[in-house]
Design a protein that fits this description.
mainly alpha
Length: 409
């Protein structure tokens, strides 16, 4: 038996017997989050992210306020520090995200190189590891919803979940989760079309079933405009800051997560312009980052090319469904949006995975070595910042070695 087949067989057998034990290989993701569980420890994350987590309803109903309101109430009732609350929430969500992605990748265990390109891509799970500004972001709620829905679609298409079972889970699980996510952060609303394409992939051409299932997303669809109507202002930001005074240290300046509640759309556009359009070099590097963030989706599509040949229209439709997220690039962090788009692409494509892949054509040793080296460079030689003026996308050779050691620890 060849080394590649032996590796594939052992990896599949190991993951089948202990599916969640495989999470141990990615526990480095939790380094940033685990320190937050210690009460009183100031978070090792960007001040902006920490500030945004504390947006609540002290100044009235406002976008992004649900999670901060829960933290505020729990602290009032049980004296629970927000470091403990947010640290525990994101610790659990990160584990869940890893578990969902491992579950979606199960049909690809016979292609270990593809699995690790997806798992170790700087644009997906490891995104917050190499950029602390991406840690403890509410984006993870959007990712959880997409990956969970994709896993349900994959199970339905493979016959492990009945159509009625899928519709029941949509009603009691995915639809409420998506609606809550919009209350946590309004950007979830722009990713509703991705849930629609996943729904089509699960239901197929059965129009009656599709209509009955699509109805479950109506509350989330209607909630989006409400969030934009209650976007908040400077008075709202001031009320939120006053509510936390004496409770926890948060940044309440105009250039903070709480302060941004008072921004106009033109302020947000100017903020993005100062980052992305600061120089031709910055724009070029962000364009390269966009291309690199799509690599996992391209690799999966190549592996599935036989399986999805009859589904190419739907795959193209999935790409079109990402168009509503394009306006966000005018007012939001490019790196975080590229991360969410990469999650969306991977989720949709993995939902198409068959129970078993067709037999892989045996490659020459030289080709295999080149593929392994290419995958290693892709994983180690670049990073995706959450935002900012991008002056250097790639990593120096000495830092590549340091990153490789970190991943092996």
């Amino acid at each position: 038996m060849s080394l590649q087949k032996t590796l594939s067989h052992n990896l599949y057998r190991f993951s089948a017997e202990l599916p969640f034990f495989s999470i141990a290989s990615l526990l480095l993701v939790l380094r940033l989050n685990s320190r937050l569980v210690t009460p009183g420890h100031f978070p090792p994350v960007a001040l902006w992210a920490w500030s945004e987590l504390h947006i609540n309803y002290a100044g009235g109903f406002v976008r992004r306020g649900l999670l901060g309101e829960i933290a505020f109430r729990l602290q009032s009732l049980f004296d629970l520090p927000t470091t403990t609350f947010f640290g525990t929430i994101f610790l659990v969500l990160t584990l869940l995200m890893i578990g969902l992605l491992f579950g979606l990748l199960r049909p690809l265990w016979s292609r270990p190189l593809v699995v690790w390109v997806v798992l170790l891509s700087p644009a997906i799970i490891l995104f917050p590891v190499f950029d602390r500004g991406a840690s403890l972001r509410k984006d993870i709620f959007v990712s959880i919803g997409l990956l969970l829905h994709a896993l349900m679609v994959q199970a339905t298409r493979q016959g492990r979940l009945t159509l009625k079972g899928y519709q029941r889970l949509m009603l009691i699980c995915v639809a409420p989760l998506v609606t809550i996510n919009i209350l946590i952060h309004e950007q979830q609303w722009f990713f509703l079309p991705v849930h629609m394409i996943l729904m089509i992939l699960a239901v197929g051409s059965r129009r009656d079933a599709l209509r009955r299932t699509a109805v479950t997303l109506i509350p989330a669809l209607l909630l989006g405009p409400v969030m934009f109507a209650y976007s908040g202002d400077a008075q709202t930001s001031a009320a939120i800051c006053n509510s936390w005074r004496g409770r926890v240290e948060v940044n309440c300046s105009d250039s903070s997560g709480i302060g941004a509640i008072g921004w106009s759309i033109f302020d947000a556009m100017a903020f993005v312009k100062s980052d992305v359009l600061s120089s031709p070099r910055a724009l070029l590097l962000w364009s390269l980052a966009t291309i690199l963030s799509w690599v996992p989706a391209v690799v999966i599509l190549h592996v599935f090319q036989r399986e999805v040949r009859g589904q190419l229209k739907l795959v193209k439709g999935a790409l079109v469904m990402l168009l509503p997220t394009v306006p966000l690039f005018v007012v939001s962090d490019w790196g975080r949006l590229l991360h969410l788009q990469a999650i969306s692409e991977v989720a949709v494509l993995l939902s198409l995975a068959p129970v078993r892949l067709t037999t892989e054509v045996q490659k020459r040793k030289l080709v295999t070595v080149l593929l392994v080296l290419s995958a290693g460079l892709y994983v180690l030689a670049w990073h995706l910042p959450h935002a900012g003026i991008l002056s250097n996308l790639f990593i120096s050779p000495d830092q590549i070695f340091v990153r490789a050691i970190r991943l092996l620890k």
